[in-house]
Amino acid sequence: MVDGAVSREFGQKRSRIREYMQKRGLDALLLGRQSNVSWYLCGAEAYVSIASERAAATLLLTREQDYLITNNIEAPRIRDEELNGVDVCLIEEPWYAVPLAVKERLPGGSLGADISFAGAADVSAEVAVLRYSLLPEEVDRYTRLGADTASALDDAVSSVKPGVSECAVAGAMAEALLGRHVTPALLLVAMDERIERYRHPLPAGKILDKAAMLVVCGRRGGLIVSMTRMVYIGRVPPTLRCKHDAVTRVDAAYIDATRPGMPVADVFDCGRRVYAESGYADEWRLHHQGGATGYAGRDYKGTQSSSETVQAWQAFAWNPSICGTKSEDTILAAPESPRIISETAGWPVLSHEVNGNVYYRPDILEL
């Protein structure tokens, strides 16, 4: 049975691509990155390794036809489980013959690609823009992913107790995510002094005494949800309390400014201004502040020199940090107001008013 919603979504994406190809003067377009293949195939998981940017299948899009070329290893699963409602011609070739099969099907004329391919113009940055503004079907899938990722992280917090190791907590996070059919694309865990020492703490052997930071990027159907939560055993000390209040205030400023039509550089300046007002003027220099997300962990990072503009229904994950703490959720730039999709039900929050709008940001959970 063909999924009508997927069929409608695919039709709109096909129209975006064909319009782009016509304006760009392309006779064919090759898409081989996981982000772009999953986007065009409406959430199809056409990959093997989550560590690779390359998909396990290549899209060859001509003016008239869509081909999905893959090998005899991946074709059965993709055909059976991933293409419901997506009208592409699946080409199965022996695993050793796929590159030749792609070349043989190329039409003459101008060729663009998001991967390295002889004779093709690199159009990866241009193609990425086509997927920034999410369609209603994608918003629905993303919202469910946000809820499942938040729920998984909430469950994993039960593993946080004195004497537990960072790797054990990371394992609990992975188990909770996979139990909800969410792939852990990134897991960061830090305990105590490692939170202050490292902004990107890969889980190691540190044993928890008081403070823990849990960071996750959960992926499903190509979409990625990013979020961070802080935990403390006992009462949060005043210094950390002051820092976390400030970093969540910065986060609220970023979220409030993330509206369709807003220059990303201006969004960045809103956060940087609150850093200074809170007494932490230079902390933004010590860690990137996040940026556009969706089908990539970060399509681009927001900076004071960003040239991009926020698109309607584009996803962002801002992640301001101050030494020892951090605030992060995934949001959508909805036309009416920014929408947070990774809120954790029952988690303590801090409220911050920005331009008359109130935002609730995750507080440090005291255990």
Polypeptide structure, described:
- The protein has 367 residues and is of the alpha+beta class.
- The chain has two domains: 4-130, Creatinase/prolidase N-terminal domain (Creatine Amidinohydrolase, Chain A, domain 1, 3-Layer(aba) Sandwich), CATH 3.40.350.10; 136-366, Creatinase/methionine aminopeptidase superfamily (Creatine Amidinohydrolase).
- Helices cover 34% and strands 25% of the residues.
- The protein is built from ten helices and 19 strands.
- The protein has helices at residues 4-24, 34-40, 75-81, 98-105, 124-130, 136-156, 166-178, 193-197, 238-257, 264-277, and strands at residues 28-33, 54-62, 66-71, 89-93, 111-113, 121-122, 183-191, 211-220, 223-232, 290-293, 300-301, 315-318, 321-322, 325-326, 331-332, 339-340, 349-354, 357-362, 365-366.
- Helix 9 (238-257) runs antiparallel to helix 10.
- The N and C termini lie far apart (49 Å).
- The mean pLDDT is 96.
Q: What is the CATH superfamily classification of the largest domain?
A: Creatinase/methionine aminopeptidase superfamily
- Largest sheet, strands/sense/barrel: 6 strands, mixed
How far from one another are the termini? 49 Å
CATH topology of the largest domain: Creatine Amidinohydrolase
String of helices and strands: HEHEEHEHEEHHHEHEEHHEEEEEEEEEE
Looking at how many chains there are and whether they match, the oligomeric state comes to single chain
Strand runs, count: 19
Strand order of the largest sheet: 4-3-2-1-5-6
CATH architecture of the largest domain: Alpha-Beta Complex
Beta percentage is 25-35%
**How much helix, percentage-wise, in residues?**
25-40%
Number of domains: 2
CATH class of the largest domain: Alpha Beta
Cα shape: globular
Q: Kindly name the structural category.
A: alpha+beta
What is the averaged pLDDT score? 96
Query: How many helices in DSSP terms?
Result: 10
Poorly predicted parts = none
